[in-house]
Amino acid sequence: MIRLHLPFLAALLLATPAHAVVGGTDASDTPLAHSSVMVLSSRGGVCTGIVLARDVVLTAAHCAAPGVEHRVHFRDESGAPVMLGIAARVLHPGYDAGAIAGRRRSIDLALLRTETALPARFVPASLTEAPVAAGTPLTLGGYGVARPGDHRSTGTFRTATMPLVEPHGPSRILAWLKGPAASGACEGDSGGPIVTADGGVLAVTTWASGSGKSACGGVSQGVLVGPQRAWISRATAAWGAEARWE
Q1: How far apart are CA 73 and CA 59, in angstroms?
Q2: For the segment 150-192, what is each residue's pLDDT rounded down to a tens digit?
Q3: For the chain, which ranges sit under pLDDT 70?
Q4: Residue-wise over 30-60: b if at least 16 C-beta within 10 A, else e?
Q5: What is the distance between the alpha carbons of residues 222 and 50, in angstroms, rounded to a whole number?
C-alpha cells in the first residue's frame, strides 16, 4: 500500500461512491464486484480491472500504457480509500494504441502486478473460452460513469445485462453487446468484466459507442479472453500466479 499523492487524490475525487455503467444497476455487493477493482492513472484516468490473483489484475491496455503512473484502487472495510502500487505490467503484444482511429485490429489487454496483495475478500475471477451464440444475454460490469461526461458519477460497481450481437470481428477476437434501451459501458468501464450467466469472464470491456445524442449507451465492445489464453497463462506464470479457467 502507498500514500496518496496529489494526482491520485484528484483521480480519487472522481471516484467517489455514486453510480457506474449507464442504464445499469448497483451491484456493489455481488461476487462480480468482489472480483473487480478500479485502476487509476496519475492523469486522472479511471478504469476497471479484473482480479485474477491476489496480486494480478487484468484490464484494458489503454488503461495501463507506459509513461503514466497507475494504481489499483479499492475501499477497505471501513470505506477508506486504499491504493496499491504497480510492481510490473505487461501489455499484449497485439495492442495498437491508434487502432480505433485507424480502424485496425488491436488486442487491448494488459496485466498488472501489484506491489502488495489485495485483501482476502477479493476473489479471483474465473475466465472462460466457451463459445457463446448471438443473442445470449451477457452481463457487463464496471466502476465507470452513470452519466456521460459526469466524472463524479464513477466509483460504484454497477452492471447491465445485454445480448451478444454479431459480428464478433473478422478474426473472432471481439464480443459486441447491444441492448434494446440505452445502456452499457461508458467512461471508466474499460477493463471491466463481461460475463456469462454462470459468472465466467468471457471478455474485457474496451470500447463503447453512443446512443442518440448521448456519448454512451450504444454498442459495448470487449476483447474475448479465450483466444488470448496462452498469453494470459505465460504472463501470469512468470509472476508465479495462475489464472482460473472454467
Answers
A1: 13
A2: 677 778 899 999 999 976 666 689 999 998 888 899 989 999 9
A3: 1-20, 149-150, 167-171
A4: eebbbbbbbbbbbeebbbbbbbbbebbbbbb
A5: 13
Please, are residues 134 and 13 in contact by the beta-carbon 8 Å criterion?
Answer: no
Burial of 7 (0-12, 13-18, 19+ CB in 10 A): middle
Neighbouring C-beta atoms of residue 197, cutoff 10 Å: 11
Whole-prediction pTM: 0.90
- Alpha-carbon distance of 111 to 115, in angstroms, equals 13
* Separation between Cα atoms, residue 133 and residue 165, nearest integer Å: 8
193 CB contacts (<8 Å, ≥6 apart)? Answer: 32, 35, 36, 48, 50, 125, 140, 141, 142, 201, 203, 204, 205
3-state secondary structure the chain: CCCCCHHHHHHHHHCCCCCCCECCEECCCCCCHHHEEEEEECCCCEEEEEEEECCEEEECHHHCCCCCCEEEEEECCCCCEEEEEEEEEEECCCCCCCHHHHCCCCCCCEEEEECCCCCCCCCCCEECCCCCCCCCEEEEEECCCCCCCCHHHCCCCEEEEEEEECCCCCCCCEEEECCCCCCECCCCCCCCEEECCCCCEEEEEEEEEEECCEEEEEEEEEEECHHHHHHHHHHHHHCCCCCEEC
CB neighbourhood size of 177 (10 A): 26
